[in-house]
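Just curious: can you write whichever protein you like plus the matching structure tokens?

***
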Amino acid sequence: MTADGSKRYVLDLRRFNKHVVKNTYPRPIPQEQFDRLHGAKWFISLDAIQGFLQRMLDAKSRLKMAFTTPDGKFCMNRLPFGFINSPEEFQNMMDDILGVLRNTIVLVYIDDVLVYAGTFEELLRRFILVLQRAQQFGLMFKLKKC
């Protein structure tokens, strides 16, 4: 139960994960990411709200993510936490959304985004570009982190 009394199901996907082919989509290499920050003096850090849950599953994947409880049968509509391929799937989505900006004005590591620039004015321009892309694709960030 959540604080407001609604139900939230938590899936233990460990057995399921043993039968899944591992997604090999590449995650960024942290040291390569840090090297891109040379000369940057201003930064804005963003964190996607409930990261994985922002990614919709296709119909076929939804059926594979079905589960049964005493209250009935359900299926996941969104990428679940605990699924072996969730980090790679989400990284792929973030790269698609921010791809044109990635590694030039923004660094992306799964659900974390770092906007960087040499001047404050440039940082604000870049931040607006990131927010425009996020809005275009329905990506939401935690307000506390913005």
About this structure: The chain has a mean pLDDT of 90. Residues 13 and 104 are 36 Å apart (CA to CA). The beta strands are 42-47, 66-69, 72-75, 106-109, 112-117. The first helix runs from residue 14 to 17.
